[in-house]
Design goal:
By secondary structure, the chain is of the alpha/beta class. The protein folds into 2 domains: about 160 residues, Nitrogenase molybdenum iron protein domain (Rossmann fold); about 180 residues, Nitrogenase molybdenum iron protein domain (Rossmann fold, 3-Layer(aba) Sandwich), CATH 3.40.50. Helices cover about 45% and strands about 15% of the residues. The strands form 3 sheets. Strands 1-11-10-9-12-13 form a 6-stranded mixed sheet, sandwiched between helices. A 5-stranded parallel sheet has the order 6-5-4-7-8, sandwiched between helices. β7, α8 and β8 form a beta-alpha-beta unit. It is globular, with a radius of gyration of 26 Å. Pfam families: Histidinol_dh. GO terms for molecular function: histidinol dehydrogenase activity; metal ion binding; NAD binding. This is Histidinol dehydrogenase. Belongs to the histidinol dehydrogenase family.
Length: about 425
């Protein structure tokens, strides 16, 4: 049985899309492709009212900006980055290079090569997302990427000093105060003053996400298709409704389009959580945003058992799944579709967002059904190589290749195999004199 105490109300209040985002983004990209820096500057002036002599910060400017940041903020940035670095390096260590000899003289190998250059987009706008510097730039550098270009927009016409500090300590090689489509397009295409990158990572608004989508493939690789933040909580009757409500709202404040879902085995739990959410919205400073998401996309669902809860949660395939039950680690065995799991009352999604060390760039809109989140492996190309040193084995492989290729009517492929069978095993072929 599934009982919905609260359903989505997509007709509720909140900003509605009033622009053709793909067309606007395509126009910006095309103009930057044609006019380079001149177009970048024009769009920065238009969208951000920002047109400095140089968008790129010099090392002297970076050090001056960092000197304005409170020491406690700098200390916290370094501590969080220590956590992210430790986890990313452990991930890298888990990706093994190897070489094996599958037959005498037949060697196959795997090698991990960092991408040559990566562009990191660090959002601004409503919130300066320092954490995105850790998650994108630092993880990239842990993978061994030689050069990282990082862009972040000005906020209300000012340089976001805290963000610049985080970008610098994360290891960015070049830092630009530049935002939006113009930043993504400049990194992807390259201009007179900005080198083209091979890959772009980092979250952003709908325009940034659309720019990455349009540039993906032909110009660059990207981390993940971006979408609104999502939170889903699985709770039993023992969970604290105050904690459940607080954690739902912690993600709902991201924007007007954040699904915040509770699946519980206890109707009383669901009712108390709804009441707590309504109470907390009256005192939450970001209620003007969180309240819209809760009204439009909040759900509270009652099911008969935890097995049913896990099954339903898997169908949602949410970005963040928080488990508030007596045995939270059960979810590791019961669930398979999620961006990241947060196990137990002592753990919250905000830890993952801001400080614990795992990456907060995660799949949304059901993408968790087929991919995980951003990790150090995204910045490595896992390539293969092969070498045959045995004449006998090369000839035997030639015979096998000839038969396999002709079964597919690939005569040219077959003859490459024939040539080895002829040379090393003295096989005779009509086409070889």
């Amino acid at each position: 049985m599934v009982l919905k105490l609260k359903q989505q109300n997509c007709s509720g209040a909140g900003p509605a899309p009033a622009v053709d985002t793909p067309t606007i983004v395509r126009g910006v990209i095309d103009e930057i492709r044609a006019k380079g820096d001149d177009a970048v500057r024009a769009y920065s002036e238009k969208f951000d009212k920002w047109s400095p002599t140089s968008f790129k910060l010099s090392q002297e400017e970076i050090q001056h900006i960092i000197s304005t940041v409170p020491q406690q903020v700098l200390d916290d940035i370094k501590q969080v980055q220590d956590n992210v670095r430790a986890f990313a390096l452990a991930q890298k260590a888990s990706i093994q290079e190897f070489e094996m000899e599958i037959r005498p003289g037949v060697h196959l190998g795997q090698k991990n090569i960092p991408i040559n250059s990566v562009g990191a987009y660090i959002p601004g706008g409503r919130y300066p997302l320092l954490a995105s510097s850790h998650m994108t730039i630092l993880t990239t550098k842990c993978a061994g990427v030689p050069h990282v270009t990082a862009c972040t927009p000005p906020i209300a016409g000012k340089i976001p000093a805290n963000t610049v500090a985080a970008m610098h300590y994360a290891g960015a090689d070049d830092i630009y105060i530049l935002g939006g489509v113009q930043a993504v397009a400049a990194m992807a295409i390259g201009t007179e003053t900005m080198k083209k990158v091979n890959f772009i990572a980092g979250p952003g608004n709908s325009f940034v996400a659309e720019a990455k989508r349009q540039l993906f493939g032909e110009e660059i690789g990207i981390d993940l298709p971006a979408g609104p933040t999502e939170i889903l909580i699985v709770a039993d009757e023992h969970a604290d409704p105050f904690t459940v409500a607080t954690d739902l709202l912690s993600q709902a404040e991201h924007g007007y389009d954040t699904p915040a879902i509770l699946i519980t085995t206890c109707k009383t739990q669901g009712e108390k959580t709804i009441a707590e959410v309504e109470r907390l919205l009256k005192i939450l400073p970001t209620a003007d945003v969180a309240g819209v998401s809760w009204d439009r996309l909040g759900e509270v669902i009652v099911v008969d058992s935890l097995d049913e809860a896990y099954k339903l949660a898997d169908e949602y395939a949410s970005e963040h799944v928080q488990i508030l039950t007596q045995n939270p680690r059960e979810a590791l065995e019961k669930m398979s579709n999620y961006g990241a799991l947060f196990l137990g009352e002592k753990t919250c999604v905000s830890y993952g967002d801001k400080c614990i060390g795992t990456n907060h760039v995660l799949p949304t809109r059901g993408a968790a059904r087929y991919t995980g989140g951003l990790w150090v492996g995204k910045f490595l190309k896992t390539v293969t190589y092969q070498e045959v040193t045995s004449p006998q084995e090369s000839g035997e492989l030639g015979r096998l290749c000839g038969r396999a290729a002709r079964a597919e009517n690939f005569e040219g492929h077959a003859r490459s195999g024939d040539a080895r069978a002829h040379r090393y095993l003295n096989d005779k072929f009509e086409w070889i004199e």
